[in-house]
Amino acid sequence: MKHFLPLLFCLPVFAASTATWEMSSYSDFVKGKFTGVALDPDGRLTVAPQLDTLLASGESALWSVVQAPDGSIYAATGHGGKVFRISPNGKSDLLWTAPQPEVFSLAIGPDHALYAAASPDGKIVRIENGHATEYFDPHEKYIWSLAFGPDGALYAGTGNRGVIYRITAAGKGEIYYSTGQAHVTALAFDNQGRLLAGSEPNGILYRISAKNQAFVLYDSSLPEIRSLAVLKDGTVLAAAMGGSVMSRVGTSAGALTTSGAGASGTAAVSVTVTDDGTSTQAGPDLKTKAPTPAPAAATTTQAATFTPLIDISGVEKSAVYRIRPDNTVETLWSSKDENLYDIAPSGVDIFLATDQQGRVYRLNPNRQTELVLQTGEGEATRLIETSRGLLAATGDLGKLFRIGNHEAATGTYESPIHDSGAVARWGRICWRSPGSTSTVRISTRSGNSLRPDSTWSPWSAPITSPLNNAIQSPNARYLQWRAELSPGAEISDVSIAYLPQNSPPIVRSVSVTSVASARSASTTSSSSSNASYSITVTDTGESPNLSSGTPAQTVGRSNSAQIQISWQADDPDGDKLVYALYFRGDGEHDWKLLKDRLTENTFNLDGDSLADGRYRFRVVASDRPSNPPAEALQAEQVSSPVWIDNTPPAVHIENPQRTAAGLALDVAADDAASSLKRCEFSIDAGPWTLVEAVDGITDSPHERFHIAAPAAPGEHLVVVRVLDTAGNAGLAKTVIR
Fold first, then answer.
1. How many CB atoms lie within 10 A of CB 253?
2. What helix, strand, coil percent values describe the chain, rounded to 5?
3. Do 19 and 105 lie in a common domain?
4. With 0-12 CB in 10 A as exposed, 13-18 as middle and 19+ as buried, what is 545?
5. 150, 423, 532, 721: which has the fewest C-beta neighbours closer than 10 Å?
6. Among candidates 472, 473, 475, 463, which has minimal Cα distance to 430?
7. Closest Cα to residue 226, out of 375, 92, 337, 339?
8. Tens digits of per-residue pLDDT, 493-552?
9. Which positions ≥6 away from 630 have C-beta within 8 Å?
């Protein structure tokens, strides 16, 4: 017996700043493009089963597929309203073309005849030996689903009124149940012969035991119950989606409107279908969970308004529910990225068909998902287990595929695009693969546009040797890799080392404020910050207006404030930064270094170390801790001018006198460094009273003030306090008798 050791092709040693792009999990790989490649739950890529084309209809979509007892396969299409027959020998023929553009459902009757439902404004026809005859006309806009019951009757789910019909013979039918919904989208029978009906737009699953007798088996949070399956033990599987297949109803000319297919939008539309088969579309409406009342009977032109489904990233778009015989419900699978069109139980597994490039998944009993294959079409619309194996029908191009039991001859996987954030130098690619390395061939390509186009490099020569796995693609910002697999090949844990071009750091802002020194803080009972000024400059080069801050809490020089310089800086590459801080006064030519090799983004400076005057501060950021010296980069930012003012205003009281009304005096105040901002006075140590300058506003270094205040007879102490914009207070007093 041969034993194979996994091979890991990589170079483990790089420079400290080398980055690695790793793909190791199922969620990593599932974002790529699969052509003949499968992905198991453990994140291993292998060659997918052989995919054989049984039918290429030339139509936009295959809506329904059934198998007859003789082994023939029947497939119904839109938007040409065609029904094809694929014989047991694989030959396909056009069996019937409906007068209407859509055939949404097929069913094989107990008489082995084929029954087909055409829409819009269509009928149910019975097809036998290639001859179609009208079987029943429900006079409804759409016929979405057909199913024969144990009683031999044909049941039809319709829209826009959400009515289910029971048809017992040609031309003989009646309303069996009216759901109050707009559409009945799926029908099936449980193992007790009760009818199951899925609806839209509120995603309600009904169990109907008799005429007009129903029980809501489940009320989904998603708009549409798209597919139903019943297991032998009575368990019901329901596939729900948010993409609204009904919005795909287009013109008979072949217009295809898919809200579920593709990546951008799942907002359903309002489709008005006239009696000539054409349609117009209007914008979406808001979904409501309230039951939809049955509208009036259809007129010549009837509007079919479908649920609005807004595609919000990160919100569940589809799910598979398991409803046990005791009516308890659990979610087996859900997706925020894909719409689920159909489910097909097979043994202990469940196959899923989605709109992500027509993917087919397998859900195992442990709820692990395996990507079986990707058809490459817009969506996989139907799955059916037949005597020929599992068949998958698709939309975008209406094809019918058979999923084989053996591997394809080869397979190719293309990774998602990796963005290194800047032009990068590529290192080596490594991967794990058991057995022979010759069964895996890996190529790369690179470019500087987000999506691969003609500006990208061509695919490189395949890498197969663990001794020569250096990436040959040119330096660029984006990279993609491709793996070609032969039968029996397996790869996992792919990683690529790269060295991004170093980007300079960014100093976004510089702020200068005054804060209480440790000495001041120990002698004050409140306010940990006594800001006398605050200057901020941003990376745009602009700064807000000078802010005066709040008045100092104390006056004594022993409690002087500190100057705090702080800044915001970051590095696009996430490199560690180190800073140097400089200052320069007006009239000076050279920057003086305050501190080098700072790792924090703040620095406190003693307020007395700089004399009164105007200064600027410069912060230089460098990424040298994370880069070789020759490749390190730096950036800088200079603050707006900062006035350093430690000198209080000079205050002089003039002409103090007693008046008939009380007291009066004039005040002259001057400041050598900054403007004055406030003048106030106190009489006999009473509360401070604000007074404005004689010219109406206190805003210059030199101001005059006139104070007049009522006072009782006798001697009074008047104290005048004037503050400048730095918060320095100058005081003067006088006694008036």
1. 11
2. 5, 50, 45
3. no
4. exposed
5. 150
6. 463
7. 339
8. 999 999 988 889 999 999 998 776 554 444 444 333 333 344 444 444 444 444 444 333
9. none
